[in-house]
Fold each of these.
Amino acid sequence: MVTNTRAAVTAQRAGDATTRAGPGSGRAASQVRLRLTLIGGFALWRGSEELRVATSGQRLIALLALRSRPVRRQQVAGLLWPDYPAERSLADLRTALWRVNQRSQKVIYATPALLRLDGAVDVDVHDLTAFARGLSQAEAGLRAVDLDSVRLAELAGDLLPDWYDDWLHDEREELRQTGLHALERLARALSAAGRHAEAIQAAQAAIRLEPLRETAHHTLIEIHLSEGNWSEARRQFQHCRQLLNAELGVEPSDSMRRLLEKSRLAGALPSICARCRTAVRAAR
């Protein structure tokens, strides 16, 4: 289900470029930008067409896509074929590179020493990190950001979940942390825009991604309180408290308790004032 959705969205994003290129010739098709998706699984697209890539080529493309600068051939070979002697790993790298670039559009730019992903390839991970950076800047009041430019499923998705390569571990964790912070910021931004239902979905996605992350629970409680749903906020606090107690043996932070206490007092103040006015009128 997730894969089909990703495929549909990827095809839709590339549709305008396909239309501009026009039907017919291979030359027109080569003008369509390639799009690489790594969140949820590997796929390389040209317009609405998914291109077939051998396993070794997939890993080569993914590795280069996740690096922000050109990588030396020896380093790439050592990461992708760590159990092979240097000479054989470099030979396998040359074979994989040749196979990947045997198409009308080159995917990898290569020099005798360095490799990098071609600049004409769009990458979903790059879009996500740019969106997360934009949310951070928007929260600081430095710029505006389109809250709908990245799908919630991409922010909460796993990076190449069926791959178990050692070199991918740090990349996966870095993207997970980026997604968690982005989900929390997105939830706050949506709530501030009055889109509370979507804000709740974003906060819940962060909690599903990391159930013990207190800041995600804190964000969800804030959204419930901004809607005036005290009971929902209290229920979420109790859920968070039980979870932290059971898994870590700790209590929620004082800041979360103060958030609820402040809201409870603010809600009680109007009724206290009303009773005071009633008593004064009666005394007169």
Amino acid sequence: MEYTANQDRYDKMQYRRCGKSGLLLPMLSLGLWHNFGTDSSFENMKQMCFTAFDNGITHFDLANNYGPEPGSAESNFGRIVKENFAGYRDELIISTKAGYTMWDGPYGDWGSRKYMLASLDQSLRRMGLDYVDIFYHHRMDPNTPLEESMMALDTAVKSGKALYAGISNYDGPHMIKAVEILNELKCPFVINQNRYSIFDRTVEKNGLKEAVGREGNQKGLIVFSPLAQGLLTDKYLHGVPADSRIKTDGRFLKADALTPQRLEQISKLNDLAAQRGQTLAQMALSWLFKDSSVTSVLIGASRPQQILENIRMMENITFTQEELQQIDVISGNK
């Protein structure tokens, strides 16, 4: 059956500007890091993408190595675009990245011009696209000059293979240097992608969050792992479910993360969320919008219903000062 998007999709989502650019992103974006690889149901992937777009989520975020197997998330998403979203391409923001290991040998990793531009060409072939909307350098490379990696982003944009440039997993000082290089090249660098959650405050400590808001050079910030790989949900309050990420894919979250102290924190945060009329996941997502620095939050999902539940976070994104202090104290950040 041919897919037709919900006519009311733009009534259900709010959009925020990436820094001072003209690009708007939905407050929630769909990340394809998990559950879009060769080990997942293609029908479920489709339904998650349909649910997202039907509710105003226009941004789909990928990387060259997302899977498993590496590249398979792009291949699967490309099939979904070809078969269902082709008529909506101009309504979508599709991003990909290069920076982690993708193929064997010295040219399949990090931040060389050779690797980044070859990777982008491969990504476009896998997705069947002429261009992506955002192309990211996925991580800082200590052995390649920053100028080389940034010039590769500039080439990607000026060749028409990407509309905007972004960087991911950078700290504040390196982001500021990247801005200087890309400004000089007149390359539209609009966004940073970093891990951020109630439990992980790295961007507050490494200067990144402050740097994106610098007067005159404001950039967007899209954050991933907002639920700390599922810890900031009620999923683990009563044991480890059989369908949980710990059980099904232990690469990024292991059982030893569920210490007694962490479980106590999760329980107290869950109680606070209930007082706000939210689930813990909804409160954790809302918390990221406590100030204006975050443009969008990347959510992952294993089924469509999770996307709908997460979208409900927009019903309450206001926090009292007391609530923010409670969250800091409970999470050990005070």
Amino acid sequence: MEASAERDTIGNAGFVEADTRFVTLRDGRRLAYSELGDPDGVAIIHQHGMPGSRLEHEAEPDFYRSMGVRVITPDRPGYGLSDPHFHRRLLDWPSDVEDLADSLGVARFGTIGLSGGGIYALACAAAIPHRLTEVVVTGCPGPMQRPGALDGTRFLTHAGVWLGAHAPWLLEAGASLLSPFVRRFPGFFVDHFNDGIPPADRRWLSMPSVSKGAADTLREAMRSGVWGYVQDIRVLANPWGFDIGDISVPVQLWHGDEDAVIPLQHGRYLASVIPGARLRICPGEGHMLLWNHLPEILLAAAGMPSQPEWPRRLPSAL
């Protein structure tokens, strides 16, 4: 495996420009990733959402550095600058993560999963538990095959999961039609998707830095087309390939009780089947609770005790 670095011309999540780096995986594919924080800090691999990219970050680089963590965010295959991995399965991802960690000389690391990225964090928990300190997921969906999994979800979620399971070619066709418009007007799609979100989420998206960051990561997700997103939905919609009841790594499940994207019943289900999992329900919060609780979540993923001197919330102006 080889690692290299080059300057990213888009910038990370609307805050500052970041170096985009690459690792060549064992099968020859190239994986792109970004890093923020302390290069000598505790490593945390961030699993971005669906869709998402390596530009997805929740605070300024100095914030991560002050906490002594090194946050590494890879583009999953087909997103951003990472090569596609055709017909990939959920359990293909942990070996990519392991290659990335090996290339960086990181023996053990924590992992955080935002929204649909949470299922990739859980796959790592199942497949490479010896490499992980702890897993923390926020607004994470559960398996979609169980009865009632889609109760309370939006129409777009219903449609995407059905197409991902039964007609991924049709999902790809529809996404391909929209992709040029998403790349050109990402802010419009961020606003449209988040229409009707609870006030706690709206407060964050009303901040220019956060809304721009969401638009930047969405645009970058579609840089090479829609294949990464289509594969993500197909992976989410089909059986995951492992028993989540066999997970032995400490897992924290954070969920807002007003989450309109992935309803709280998903968090409750995961907590009921993952041994020892801890469910943290956040009253009055929605899908963006990671922004509200970033210090606690970073410390948990790093396997570090919570520090009372760390603020429970990020500054109101990022």
